[in-house]
Design brief:
Largest sheet: 3 strands, antiparallel
Shape: globular
Number of helices: 9
Number of domains: 2
Number of strands: 8
Strand order of the largest sheet: 1-3-2
Strand content: 15-25%
Distance between the termini: 37 Å
CATH topology of the largest domain: Arc Repressor Mutant, subunit A
CATH superfamily of the largest domain: Winged helix-like DNA-binding domain superfamily/Winged helix DNA-binding domain
Structural class: alpha+beta
Helix content: 40-55%
C-alpha cells in the first residue's frame, strides 16, 4: 500500500466513524481491518493517534485536535461495551446537538437525559420519556426562555432517532431507555452535573 493509499483509507475510516456517530470497538476494529488490510491491534491504536494528532513528521498534516475534535473510546456504563466515536472538544453541552436536531428535539433530549440521570435505576420507561416533551424551553436570544412544543407523534419519532443514533439505548423492547454510548462520549460533564449523588458515583470515571 502506498502512502497516498494509506491516507485515503484512513480518511475513509474517519468518514465512516463520523457518519455513524460511534461504533462498538469490535465494529471499529472490523472496519479498520477491512480498510487497512491489517489485523494488528497496535496499528489500530496508531490510527486513532494519527487521526487525533496528525503526522508529527508532516507539518501540513493536521489532526482532529487542531479542530477541537477527537476520536475517543469509552466503556459504556449501560452495557459494559467499549465504543469509539468522534467528539466535539470545544463544548460539553446539548448545544452541540443543534446541528443534528430541531430546538424542540434538543430540549426533549436534554430533559430525558436529566430525568435518567436522577432515576434510581438510571433508566426510564416509555411513558416517562414521552412525558418529557411537556414544558420544553430554550434560552431566548434577548434573554428569558422561549417555550417549545413537540407533538406526541414527533416525540415518538425523536425517541426512535435517539436510539438509532445511540444517544439513548433501548433497555427493553422499546419500553425502557438508558443513556446511550454517544451521550456518554459527547456529554459526560453534563451527565455528571445532572446526576444524583448515587448515580454520579457510578459515572465518576466517564
Amino acid at each position: 500500500m502506498t502512502s497516498t493509499e494509506g491516507i485515503v483509507r484512513r480518511h475513509a475510516f474517519l468518514q465512516a466513524l463520523l457518519k455513524r456517530g460511534c461504533l462498538e470497538e469490535s465494529e471499529a476494529l472490523r472496519l479498520f481491518q477491512e480498510l487497512m488490510e491489517s489485523d494488528d491491534p497496535s496499528a489500530f491504536n496508531h490510527l486513532l493517534t494519527w487521526l487525533n494528532l496528525g503526522d508529527p513528521e508532516d507539518e501540513g498534516e493536521f489532526g482532529l485536535h487542531s479542530l477541537h475534535m477527537a476520536v475517543r473510546s469509552l466503556r459504556n456504563p449501560s452495557d459494559g461495551k467499549v465504543y469509539v466515536g468522534v467528539v466535539n472538544r470545544l463544548q460539553d453541552n446539548v448545544a452541540k446537538l443543534g446541528g443534528l436536531f430541531t430546538p424542540a428535539e434538543t430540549a426533549f433530549f436534554q430533559k430525558i437525559l436529566e430525568t435518567i440521570a436522577v432515576a434510581e435505576e438510571r433508566e426510564i420507561d416509555h411513558v416517562e420519556a414521552l412525558n418529557c416533551r411537556s414544558g420544553l424551553k430554550r434560552a431566548g436570544t434577548l434573554g428569558g426562555d422561549v417555550s417549545l412544543s413537540l407533538s406526541l407523534t414527533d416525540a415518538e419519532t425523536a425517541l426512535r432517532t435517539f436510539v438509532r443514533e445511540r444517544w439513548l439505548q433501548d433497555a427493553g423492547r422499546g419500553e425502557m431507555y438508558r443513556l446511550g454510548p454517544r451521550a456518554f462520549l459527547e456529554l459526560s460533564d453534563m451527565i455528571r452535573d445532572a446526576a444524583s449523588d448515587e448515580n454520579r458515583g457510578e459515572w465518576i470515571n466517564l
